[in-house]
Design a protein that fits this description.
Number of helices: 6
Largest sheet: 8 strands, mixed
Shape: globular
CATH architecture: 3-Layer(aba) Sandwich
Helix content: 25-40%
Distance between the termini: 35 Å
CATH topology: Aminopeptidase
Structural class: alpha+beta
């Protein structure tokens, strides 16, 4: 008779702690981030970047301050500001959410990376810091990414970051008055050492030229 190996739960829930990287610092969201996040949400492309979020782009600084006030002390989602260490400004935000320590499952979601963060090494490192914290510090077994199945850029990003596509939940929810089919992706603790090594190789300063362009693409498989 085969005896199944015991599976231990995660160490606990993530806390409001700062996560430091080379290029970004993830700070628990607070009122001090509202002005920067509003600035990062006020360019002409902001509406498109908010297209698949549950909230719309803020129409004013007061709107952003109200949103921050509403969510910043929540435990799930636990929202962090993505701060560019070179400027000291918050250029985006992301959340740890759907946190289930007893099963070792956690998700990154609620991502808004403004124009100074999206498609840069800052965004990649922001994702990496969440994954490293979830697996290495907290002992989670499964790190999830979910998005609207119509959101092709998000699906491409998930695959670039080393998540595995698992399928589509049809008519999963209603979002902004529209049907949402949800694409599910995951990364497992058994896969993390290879993914982690790939992230660290890509994020190393030696992988970028004097203009900040990558020399080799991210490879985490």
């Amino acid at each position: 008779m085969t005896i199944a190996a015991e599976v231990k739960p995660a160490l606990g829930r993530p806390q409001r702690t700062v996560l430091e990287g080379r290029y970004v610092r993830l700070e628990p969201l607070g009122p001090e981030h509202a002005a920067d996040l509003y600035a990062a949400s006020s360019d002409e492309g902001a509406a498109g970047r908010y297209r698949y979020l549950f909230e719309s782009a803020p129409a004013s600084l007061a709107d952003m301050e109200a949103w921050v006030h509403r969510v910043h002390m929540g435990e799930d989602p636990l929202v962090f500001a993505v701060v560019d260490r070179a400027t000291g400004r918050a250029g985006g935000r992301q959340s740890l959410m759907r946190i289930v320590p007893e099963h070792g499952v956690i998700e990154i979601g609620g991502i808004y990376w403004g124009p100074g963060v999206a498609r840069t090494r800052l965004a990649t490192e922001a994702l990496y810091l969440f994954a490293r914290h979830s697996f290495d510090d907290l002992g989670y077994r499964r790190f999830e990414w979910k998005c609207n199945n119509a959101n092709e850029p998000s699906k491409r990003a998930a695959e670039r970051f080393g998540f595995t596509f698992e399928g589509v939940f049809r008519q999963h929810m209603i979002q902004k008055g529209e049907n949402r089919d949800t694409a599910w992706f995951s990364m497992l603790d058994s896969e993390w050492p290879t993914r982690k090594a790939g992230f660290e190789r890509w994020l190393d300063d030696s992988n970028f030229d004097a203009e900040g362009r990558q020399k080799t693409p991210l490879s985490v498989r």
